[in-house]
Amino acid sequence: MKNDTICAIATGATNAGISIIRISGEDAFTVADRIFVAKKTGKKLADRKTHTLTYGNIVSDNEIVDEVLVSVMRAPNSYTAENVAEINCHGGYAVTKKILELCIKAGARLAEPGEFTKRAFLNGRMDLSQAEAVIDLINASNEDAVKNSVAQLSGKLRNKVVALREKILKDTAYIEAALDDPEHMDLTGFTDELSVHVNEEMSEIKDLLSGFENGRLIQNGIRTVILGKPNAGKSTLLNALTGTHRAIVTDIPGTTRDILEEIIVIDGITLNIVDTAGIHDTEDVVEKIGVEKAVDEIENADLCLFVADASRALDDDDRNIIRLLDGKKAVVLLNKSDLSPVLTSDDLKKACNREVISISAKDETGIDIFVEEIKKLFGFGKLGKKEDFYISKLRHKELLENALLSLKEVLKSIDLGMSEDFFSIDLMNAYTSLGSIIGEEIGDDLADKIFKEFCMGK
Fold first, then answer.
1. CATH number at residue 92
2. Edge-to-edge, what's the strand order for the sheet holding 6-9?
3. Among 105, 268, 429, 451, which one has the highest count of C-beta atoms within 10 angstroms of its own C-beta?
4. Range of 399's domain?
């Protein structure tokens, strides 16, 4: 671990009312005192009590750069568990950049991406799962994502992993002790007890794994593909959802010939929306490429929005799209409900064997109904209880699966009547996999990779 003093802008890079420059390390107060002069008292930051604010000026060559407040947080009671000074200055880009340059000139080094949080992890201020929750909280785009990140930041996942490891370690220690001292410790009948313990631990891991898909969708958003034949109203729907004229809308079929993507948050749900070219049989070379791309998008979609046109009868193009939806989560929308219907909800429901929601993308009616249907499909809005959270990191999922596989091997060894040594090996493999989730068992390369995903000031 690097122990020098680091600094970075901890707020956004755009103009704002306030910016914060964070300084962390043993010499944080010394660095800040070289460029800061307190008003009235003239007292040095190094002499201030922890968790206090001091009003004064940032000065360079006897000239005032900005009027600021500086917070003092002494180790270990700070974000990094080191001495931390945070300069709260006016939020203009030029003044913020100038103060950062003065901090570097005064002896601090520019922090690497995620280095503040990395130091918090290495100093024992938080475990790795909590550190990863920090970036998830920063990137959260909906209420459930915030709740899920806060739950993990508060240690919910850590507590479950620690409890599992303690159970595994207790059984492993007993086996090892009995093998070392067979005269005083007897393993007779222990396999029955061990089987019960392992099954309980596997059940807990399966519970964690069962929430991964929801966690991924809450955190990353639902990849949503809008499908339909040309001129069904797909682009009008996209514009209605985004509140913009992102897609070109005309009465001419086939206006959209490529993929349009937009991220929106609607009623607490993040949708990564993909508007596709109309799927239909065509000889046009360019349109064919658009149709092929649309079909490819279905494979990667978490959700398909099938937009059918109420003003036109169901045809082979519609039926082809319905076949493509087989096995996919989908919401069927009968658009243009503001016009005299040619295609009815009952006809469409019978054709696709799914519930049908009537909407008018043009008038923006019925959208609230299908948003509620999406919530039902994915179980959103259920993170109300304090103990609820979902794992959302692929890294956590893979490690839990590794631990589960190792515990299955323990049961297999018991069934085959194998030596207790085999139990210990697989139990410790499970213990190690679980430890990697919270950072007890992790290499420097992986730690570097994780923290490089953070922004510079975090």
1. 3.30.1360.120
2. 36-38, 52-60, 63-73, 84-91, 16-24, 6-9, 109-110
3. 451
4. 130-211+391-439
Return d(Cα 429, Cα 422) in angstroms, integer: 11
pLDDT value for 3: 84
Residues 16 and 115 in one domain: yes
Residue type, 184: H
φ/ψ of residue 296, rounded to 5 = -65, -35
Give whole-number Cα distances, 20 to 232, 237, 318, 404, in Å.
50, 41, 55, 44
Rounded alpha-carbon distances, angstroms, from residue 148 to 137, 169, 295: 8, 29, 33
Mean pLDDT of the residues in the chain: 86
- Cβ neighbour number for residue 286 with a 10 Å cutoff: 12
What is d(CA 197, CA 431) in angstroms, rounded to the nearest whole number? 14
Give the C-alpha separation, 254 to 248, whole Å. Answer: 11
> How far separated are the first and last CA of the chain, in Å rounded?
17
> What is the separation of C-alpha 271 from the centre of its chain, rounded to a whole number of angstroms?
14
Most confidently predicted of 180-184, 243-247, 338-342: 338-342
Assigned domain for 354 exists: yes
Domain end residue (candidates: 126, 147, 172): 126
Q: How far apart are CA 24 and CA 17, in angstroms?
A: 23
Residues 94 and 142 in one domain: no
Q: Which residues contact 345 (CB under 8 A, 6 or more apart)?
A: 334, 356, 358
Instruction: Report pLDDT digits (tens) over 352-393.
Output: 999 999 998 888 888 889 888 888 888 776 555 545 889 999
Extended strands (E) in 45-189: 52-60, 63-73, 84-91, 109-110
